[in-house]
């Protein structure tokens, strides 16, 4: 009951193009593709008046839309919805700061850096670091390395 | 071009990505990719050694291509080479490629592990983090094997940098999840707990996740984390909103860490140490208080972060379920959210209240919100919110509001979303059955259900209504009348035809006296539906017709005519044809006596509750909702609430442990005249294990069918595949109920006060069922140990310890030391009551399962009242004896609040179940209950008089007991007062 674990994090645009897929559970490639499509189908039909949560298989998706991008986190049904909802926002604010007004293209061209940002903030399906200051400091330090 | 990409080149990558984006078609994209793949391949194969930068660039391109959804079958080696680079950016791309693409590729795993090993020992925190993230992301067994020792060492080493500690903690967590056997606990475990004290809140955040996972598996080893977590939480919630600087999020101090700490505390019962407990209560109060303060910011982020902590605090309060004031405060807070303008909050409030409804302390408080919840059902735009409202109504339902809730659910059902209809149907069916006071209401409700949502009414639901009608003769006439009327509708659902066919076939005679529903009219009505129905329904109708031949000889000719028609006798469907032929022959050649025997009314079904519940659970998976149901169900069983069907069901129901114990207590053998008690006998001899649930269900089924076959009913009445299914489903009323929460085990002692059979204990391995009978001062208890696993239990032993050996004696035979997987073991306990006693004996069970030794201790439900013999007496005698017992010590009185709705019939049943006779017309106030009985012990007999005065307005009871012994009065009062 207490289990806390992110199953996956997805960033998708409205058209269903995946901008980030981070898996914290073993899925084979077909299964991943199916999940990506299902999540897209479930999330994009919801409107702003709906909750930011949606049941999904035996889990739930916590999601938030930013412009044309959907940020989705899949967690256990017993997990804390609002903590993950703000976890998403915290992550987005870091991206915004790091990429100076982040837009979808930043995520496309710098996909390999987005993975680094994710790993700083989420690891092994858990929240690793929540301080924006600390994460950005670390990212800038890495940026300065060659 | 994005801002950051300027600095660090890989221009080639940017160009390639742009090219791909500019492709006008899928074909163009594939062409461009193939060109690039060819280019990269030639570079990798070329004679010229590539520099690190090019290698990084090409590997990164491959990764991009892979992420677009194309297969990549080369480049792994180059990626592994990048791992040994001294440049961060090259190493990072190497690790990323490995994390995303390598599925424990055996050729490379040694090389990869070597590179990781080097980085782990490099003392360069950046490299160490890359390596740890890679282990955490891949998490394969090979990696667990290779680094099981390194990761814990890094985590607790004094000189490890904070950010590395964070990664190491979560890396260890990942390895522990994937390969727990490879990560032995060690001296690092105690040091991990102390990370909760770390100055760096990021380290605490990561460590808390690790400790939660470890504590879930080995709670005892991490007990010390409770006080540390409370201390840490206390510092956070009392800090000013700016104290924690980096960790303050929109004026909320460390919300994510708070949530995790509150989660960790949910791995444990409330702290025993009063000081810690007090401090935690203060924290929880502070969090609840903050919810009432004006917001420090209008931003949704502020309120979300604050409420994330609040909801987690409420979860902990519910988990502890021990502080009534906190529970009620939580409920009030959620009540405010029910009307909040944020949909998220309304949703979460409904969800959280669902669990609050299962706590006895807050159940009533939850119920006060019923109107708001019903309103949510009608007005919410988001179906998932409406779904939560349905769940909550289901959870808050009890006898007092069942009619209203069922009515609202039925009316919602008319317009409900298709996706949740079936579930609502199941819920309505369960509530209607569980809280039915009048059977007529139950029958009406189910028929309405079929009318409104026939397509969603599963077999379990309509089987169930038939089982109940068959078992309850006082509802049969009403049921026949109601289905007859319902069938008049020009378009009625096929499920209604099935129910109607079955019920009229059995009980049509009960309404045949009315000329408006004469036999012929009944038959014509049924037959008018025949041609619109599917084959299984037609088969059922044919059986109903042959039953009519027995019930109403006057329509025999008409029915024979129908059976004889070509459309029946030559029907293309084998089942229909066979039935028509056999029924026709039977009706022609059999004498009335034989017909009457063969086509006799169905005997009562063995009572079992959960076939629908099981279905609902299956539907909901193992999510929260079913947990809620479990707890609630458990609460009901524990505290003795049972529906009318359980309390007053026919003798056969005792078989399944749901019945009324008075039949056994009164000492009179059950009447052996009807088919039902015959069945009981069959079962109690050959299959005393019947209460033990799913494992034995098929056997019962088989035997049950065999019993029917003797009267040919099975063969003739049901297609073979249906006859068995009626009985299927788990009868375990308390399945999954006994988890590790001690409060519940304690309460369960009262569960069997008014009944003798049922499931005593159950965990994932073992189920213990009971069947017991008592006469005078002696008792016999059959204990059934069901091995739920597929593995043998070894060294199995079960012994009984009596704490008052002078007052109570229990003899047992040694149990067989081996219990095979899926098998059941029976043990007989002989009980002798020597004198009055308080402490129930304890059953100690030990066995080896797999590698570990299991110890289970359960209190046996041997209570003083089991040795009652009821005594009937007149009013005059009662008061005379009452006056004789006037010594103040002989009387015990208790005034207490009703825990359940104050239903007269239920109360009566409980007093009878308790063992005394229920005396009518003794008390001048007809709403009071009066009982009398004698407790038999070997040394003495103690006469006992009791009087129970309900005050429905105040929802209180006053219970007065007088016996010749003060200790007996006290004990009986304690036992009985827990039942209402």
From TrEMBL, chain A:
<dbReference type="InterPro" id="IPR011012">
    <property type="entry name" value="Longin-like_dom_sf"/>
</dbReference>
<comment type="subunit">
    <text>Adaptor protein complex 2 (AP-2) is a heterotetramer composed of two large adaptins (alpha-type subunit AP2A1 or AP2A2 and beta-type subunit AP2B1), a medium adaptin (mu-type subunit AP2M1) and a small adaptin (sigma-type subunit AP2S1). Interacts with CCDC32; the interaction is direct and mediates association of CCDC32 with adaptor protein complex 2 (AP-2).</text>
</comment>
<keyword id="KW-1003">Cell membrane</keyword>
<dbReference type="InterPro" id="IPR016635">
    <property type="entry name" value="AP_complex_ssu"/>
</dbReference>
<dbReference type="GO" id="GO:0072583">
    <property type="term" value="P:clathrin-dependent endocytosis"/>
</dbReference>
<dbReference type="GO" id="GO:0035615">
    <property type="term" value="F:clathrin adaptor activity"/>
</dbReference>
<protein>
    <recommendedName>
        <fullName>AP complex subunit sigma</fullName>
    </recommendedName>
</protein>
<keyword id="KW-0813">Transport</keyword>
<dbReference type="GO" id="GO:0006886">
    <property type="term" value="P:intracellular protein transport"/>
</dbReference>
<keyword id="KW-0254">Endocytosis</keyword>
<dbReference type="InterPro" id="IPR022775">
    <property type="entry name" value="AP_mu_sigma_su"/>
</dbReference>
<dbReference type="Pfam" id="PF01217">
    <property type="entry name" value="Clat_adaptor_s"/>
</dbReference>
<dbReference type="InterPro" id="IPR000804">
    <property type="entry name" value="Clathrin_sm-chain_CS"/>
</dbReference>
<keyword id="KW-0653">Protein transport</keyword>
<feature type="domain" description="AP complex mu/sigma subunit">
    <location>
        <begin position="6"/>
        <end position="145"/>
    </location>
</feature>
<keyword id="KW-0472">Membrane</keyword>
<comment type="similarity">
    <text>Belongs to the adaptor complexes small subunit family.</text>
</comment>
<dbReference type="GO" id="GO:0030122">
    <property type="term" value="C:AP-2 adaptor complex"/>
</dbReference>
<dbReference type="InterPro" id="IPR027156">
    <property type="entry name" value="APS2"/>
</dbReference>
<keyword id="KW-0168">Coated pit</keyword>
From TrEMBL, chain B:
<dbReference type="InterPro" id="IPR017104">
    <property type="entry name" value="AP2_complex_asu"/>
</dbReference>
<feature type="domain" description="Clathrin adaptor alpha/beta/gamma-adaptin appendage Ig-like subdomain">
    <location>
        <begin position="750"/>
        <end position="861"/>
    </location>
</feature>
<keyword id="KW-0254">Endocytosis</keyword>
<dbReference type="Pfam" id="PF02296">
    <property type="entry name" value="Alpha_adaptin_C"/>
</dbReference>
<feature type="binding site">
    <location>
        <begin position="11"/>
        <end position="12"/>
    </location>
    <ligand>
        <name>a 1,2-diacyl-sn-glycero-3-phospho-(1D-myo-inositol-3,4,5-trisphosphate)</name>
    </ligand>
</feature>
<comment type="function">
    <text>Component of the adaptor protein complex 2 (AP-2). Adaptor protein complexes function in protein transport via transport vesicles in different membrane traffic pathways. Adaptor protein complexes are vesicle coat components and appear to be involved in cargo selection and vesicle formation. AP-2 is involved in clathrin-dependent endocytosis in which cargo proteins are incorporated into vesicles surrounded by clathrin (clathrin-coated vesicles, CCVs) which are destined for fusion with the early endosome.</text>
</comment>
<protein>
    <recommendedName>
        <fullName>AP-2 complex subunit alpha</fullName>
    </recommendedName>
</protein>
<dbReference type="InterPro" id="IPR050840">
    <property type="entry name" value="Adaptor_Complx_Large_Subunit"/>
</dbReference>
<dbReference type="InterPro" id="IPR013041">
    <property type="entry name" value="Clathrin_app_Ig-like_sf"/>
</dbReference>
<dbReference type="InterPro" id="IPR003164">
    <property type="entry name" value="Clathrin_a-adaptin_app_sub_C"/>
</dbReference>
<feature type="binding site">
    <location>
        <position position="43"/>
    </location>
    <ligand>
        <name>a 1,2-diacyl-sn-glycero-3-phospho-(1D-myo-inositol-3,4,5-trisphosphate)</name>
    </ligand>
</feature>
<dbReference type="Pfam" id="PF01602">
    <property type="entry name" value="Adaptin_N"/>
</dbReference>
<dbReference type="InterPro" id="IPR011989">
    <property type="entry name" value="ARM-like"/>
</dbReference>
<dbReference type="GO" id="GO:0006886">
    <property type="term" value="P:intracellular protein transport"/>
</dbReference>
<comment type="similarity">
    <text>Belongs to the adaptor complexes large subunit family.</text>
</comment>
<dbReference type="InterPro" id="IPR012295">
    <property type="entry name" value="TBP_dom_sf"/>
</dbReference>
<keyword id="KW-0813">Transport</keyword>
<feature type="binding site">
    <location>
        <begin position="57"/>
        <end position="61"/>
    </location>
    <ligand>
        <name>a 1,2-diacyl-sn-glycero-3-phospho-(1D-myo-inositol-3,4,5-trisphosphate)</name>
    </ligand>
</feature>
<feature type="binding site">
    <location>
        <position position="53"/>
    </location>
    <ligand>
        <name>a 1,2-diacyl-sn-glycero-3-phospho-(1D-myo-inositol-3,4,5-trisphosphate)</name>
    </ligand>
</feature>
<keyword id="KW-0168">Coated pit</keyword>
<keyword id="KW-0472">Membrane</keyword>
<dbReference type="GO" id="GO:0072583">
    <property type="term" value="P:clathrin-dependent endocytosis"/>
</dbReference>
């Amino acid at each position: 009951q207490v289990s806390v674990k992110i199953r996956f994090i997805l960033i998708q645009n409205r058209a269903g193009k995946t901008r980030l897929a981070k898996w914290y559970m073993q899925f084979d490639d077909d299964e991943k593709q199916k999940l990506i499509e299902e999540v897209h189908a479930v999330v994009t039909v919801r409107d702003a008046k709906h909750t930011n949560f949606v049941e999904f298989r035996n889990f739930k998706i916590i999601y938030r839309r930013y412009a044309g991008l959907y940020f989705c986190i899949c967690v256990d049904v017993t997990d804390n919805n609002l903590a993950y909802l703000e976890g998403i926002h915290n992550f987005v604010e870091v991206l915004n700061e790091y990429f100076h007004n982040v837009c979808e293209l930043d995520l496309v061209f710098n996909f390999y850096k987005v993975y680094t940002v994710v790993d700083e903030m989420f690891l092994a399906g858990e929240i690793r670091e929540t301080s924006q200051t600390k994460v950005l400091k670390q990212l800038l330090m890495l940026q300065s390395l060659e | 071009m994005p801002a950051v990409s300027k600095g660090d080149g890989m221009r080639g990558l940017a160009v390639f990505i742009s090219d791909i984006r500019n492709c006008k078609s899928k074909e163009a994209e594939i062409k461009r990719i193939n060109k690039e793949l060819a280019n990269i391949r030639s570079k990798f194969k070329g004679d010229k050694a590539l520099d690190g930068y090019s290698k990084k660039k090409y590997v990164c391109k491959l990764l991009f291509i892979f992420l677009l959804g194309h297969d990549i079958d080369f480049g792994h080696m180059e990626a592994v080479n990048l791992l040994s680079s001294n440049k961060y950016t090259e190493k990072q791309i190497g690790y990323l490629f490995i994390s995303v693409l390598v599925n424990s590729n055996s050729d490379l795993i040694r090389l990869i592990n070597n590179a990781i090993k080097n980085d782990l020992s490099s003392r360069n925190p950046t490299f160490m983090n890359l390596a740890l993230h890679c282990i955490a992301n891949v998490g394969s067994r090979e990696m667990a094997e290779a680094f099981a020792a390194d990761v814990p060492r890094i985590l607790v080493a004094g000189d490890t940098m904070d950010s590395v500690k964070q990664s190491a903690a979560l890396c260890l967590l990942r390895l522990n999840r994937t390969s727990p056997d490879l990560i032995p606990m060690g001296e690092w475990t105690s040091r991990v707990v102390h990370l909760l004290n770390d100055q760096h809140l990021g380290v605490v955040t990561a460590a808390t996740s690790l400790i939660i996972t470890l504590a879930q598996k080995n709670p005892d080893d991490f007990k010390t984390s409770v006080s540390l977590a409370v201390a840490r939480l206390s510092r956070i919630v009392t800090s000013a909103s700016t104290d924690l600087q980096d960790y303050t999020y929109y004026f909320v101090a460390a919300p994510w860490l708070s949530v995790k700490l509150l989660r960790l505390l949910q791995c444990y019962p409330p702290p025993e140490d009063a000081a810690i407990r007090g401090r935690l209560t203060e924290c929880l109060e502070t969090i609840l208080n903050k919810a009432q303060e004006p917001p420090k910011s209008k931003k949704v982020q502020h309120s979300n972060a604050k409420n994330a902590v609040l909801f987690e605090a409420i979860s902990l309060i519910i988990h502890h379920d021990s502080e009534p004031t906190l529970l009620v405060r939580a409920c009030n807070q959620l009540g405010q959210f029910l009307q909040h303008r944020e949909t998220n909050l309304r949703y979460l409030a409904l969800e959280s209240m669902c669990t609050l409804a299962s706590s006895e302390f807050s159940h009533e408080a939850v119920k006060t919100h019923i109107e708001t919840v019903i309103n949510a059902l009608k007005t919410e735009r988001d179906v998932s919110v409406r779904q939560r409202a349905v769940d909550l109504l289901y959870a808050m339902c009890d006898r007092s509001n069942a009619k209203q809730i069922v009515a609202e659910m039925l009316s919602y059902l008319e317009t409900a979303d298709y996706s949740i209809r079936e579930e609502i149907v199941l819920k309505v069916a369960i509530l209607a059955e569980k809280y039915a006071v009048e059977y007529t209401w139950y029958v009406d409700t189910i028929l309405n259900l079929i009318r409104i949502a026939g397509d969603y009414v599963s077999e379990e639901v309509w089987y169930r209504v038939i089982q109940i009608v068959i078992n309850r003769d006082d509802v049969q006439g009403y049921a026949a009348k109601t289905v007859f009327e319902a069938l008049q509708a020009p378009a009625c659902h096929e499920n209604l035809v099935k129910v109607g066919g079955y019920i009229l076939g059995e009980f049509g005679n009960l309404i045949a006296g009315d000329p408006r529903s004469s036999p012929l009219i009944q038959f014509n009505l049924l037959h008018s539906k025949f041609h619109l129905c599917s084959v299984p329904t037609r088969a059922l109708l044919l059986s109903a017709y042959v039953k009519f031949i027995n019930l109403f000889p006057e329509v025999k000719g008409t029915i024979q005519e129908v059976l004889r028609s070509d459309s029946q006798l030559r029907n293309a469907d084998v089942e229909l044809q066979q039935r028509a032929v056999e029924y026709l022959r039977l009706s022609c050649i059999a004498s009335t006596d034989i017909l009457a025997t063969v086509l006799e009314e169905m005997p009562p079904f063995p009572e079992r509750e959960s076939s629908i519940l099981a279905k609902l659970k299956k539907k909901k998976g193992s999510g929260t909702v079913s947990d809620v149901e479990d707890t609630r169900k458990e609460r009901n069983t524990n505290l003795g609430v049972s529906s009318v069907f359980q309390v007053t069901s026919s003798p056969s129901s005792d078989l399944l442990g749901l019945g009324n114990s008075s039949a056994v207590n009164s000492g009179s053998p059950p009447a052996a005249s009807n088919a039902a008690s015959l069945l009981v006998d069959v079962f109690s001899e050959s299959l005393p294990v019947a209460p033990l649930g799913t494992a034995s269900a098929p056997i019962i089924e088989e035997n049950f069918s065999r019993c029917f076959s003797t009267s040919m009913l099975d063969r003739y009445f049901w297609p073979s595949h249906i006859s068995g299914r009626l009985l299927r489903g788990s009868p375990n009323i308390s399945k999954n109920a006994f988890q590790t929460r001690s409060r519940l085990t304690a309460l369960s002692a009262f569960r069997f006060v008014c009944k003798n059979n049922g499931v005593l204990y159950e965990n994932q391995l073992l189920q213990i069922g009971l069947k017991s009978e008592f006469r005078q001062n002696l008792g016999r208890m059959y204990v059934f140990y069901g091995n739920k696993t597929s593995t043998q239990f070894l060294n199995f032993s079960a012994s009984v310890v009596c704490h008052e050996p002078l007052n109570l004696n229990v003899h047992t035979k040694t149990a067989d030391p081996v219990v095979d997987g899926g098998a059941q073991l029976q043990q007989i306990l002989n009980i002798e009551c020597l004198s009055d006693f308080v402490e129930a004996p304890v059953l100690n069970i030990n066995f080896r399962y797999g590698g570990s030794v299991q110890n289970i201790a359960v209190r046996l439900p041997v209570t003083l009242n089991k040795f009652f013999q009821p005594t009937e007496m007149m009013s005059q005698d009662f008061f005379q004896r009452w006056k004789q017992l006037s010594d103040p010590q002989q009387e015990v009185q208790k005034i207490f609040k009703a825990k359940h709705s104050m239903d007269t019939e239920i109360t009566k049943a409980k007093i009878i179940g308790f063992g005394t006779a229920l005396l009518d017309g003794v008390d001048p106030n007809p709403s009071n209950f009066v009982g009398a009985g004698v407790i038999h012990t070997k040394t003495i007999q103690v006469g006992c008089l009791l009087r129970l005065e309900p005050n429905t307005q105040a929802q209180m009871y006053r219970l007065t007991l007088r016996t010749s012994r003060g200790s007996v009065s006290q004990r009986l009062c304690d036992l009985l007062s827990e039942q209402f």
